[in-house]
Write a structure and sequence with these properties.
Layout (H helix, E strand, L loop, with lengths): L1 E4 L2 E2 L5 E2 L4 H15 L4 E7 L7 H11 L4 E7 L6
Parallel strand pairs: 1-4, 4-5
Antiparallel strand pairs: 2-3
Helix pairs in contact: 1-2
Length: 81
C-alpha cells in the first residue's frame, strides 16, 4: 500500500509546506488511520515546496516512525533535488 502527503490548505485557501516533520508525521498517521493499516509500504512527498530542504522533514521523523513506513519517496520532484 502506498500513500502520500501534499500541500495543506490554510484557512485563507493558500497552501503551506508539507515537508516539515510535524506535517509529515500527522499526515502519515492520518493515512494509517483512514486506511486501517499498521504499516504503509511506500510513503511519498507529493509536490515538495520549491527550495525546501526535504531531509528536514524526513530524517528526524523516520528515526521516530517506529516501523510505520517501509520505504519513502518523492513524486513531482526534479532529479537534482
Amino acid at each position: 500500500m502506498s500513500s502520500r502527503n501534499a500541500a495543506e490548505l490554510d484557512e485563507q485557501g493558500g497552501s503551506s509546506s508539507s515537508s516539515k516533520r510535524d506535517a509529515v508525521r500527522k499526515e502519515c498517521e492520518d493515512s494509517l488511520r483512514r486506511l486501517q493499516l499498521d504499516v504503509i509500504d511506500l510513503y511519498q512527498i507529493h509536490w515538495p515546496e520549491p527550495g525546501e530542504d526535504l531531509e528536514e522533514g524526513w530524517r528526524p521523523w523516520l528515526a521516530q516512525a517506529g516501523g510505520k513506513v517501509r520505504w519513502i519517496g518523492v513524486s513531482n520532484c526534479s532529479a537534482d533535488r
